[in-house]
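Quick one: structure for this chain?
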Amino acid sequence: MTVGDKAAVIAVLKDVETYGLSAVGCQFRQIEGKLWEIKIKAPQGGYRIFYVMISSVEMMCLHAYKKQGQKAPKKELEVARKRLKEVLS
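Got it. Here's what it folds into:
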């Protein structure tokens, strides 16, 4: 991850913390059940962060990766599912 990409991702996450679902520069999407995804555009490409809502005001990031195609790779989804299971147990 380049310095510029890292700065862009951190800036978006700070906006999510401040503005919630109204944050600019990202999209939110439910993957399945309690597993959600934030799509973030950065200077050198897109990033995806899988997360779970712990409470109405608390989000836990489970896994992040650089987007390489239209669909999330199975490997990346499996990592997120495993971490989600650990968090919820």
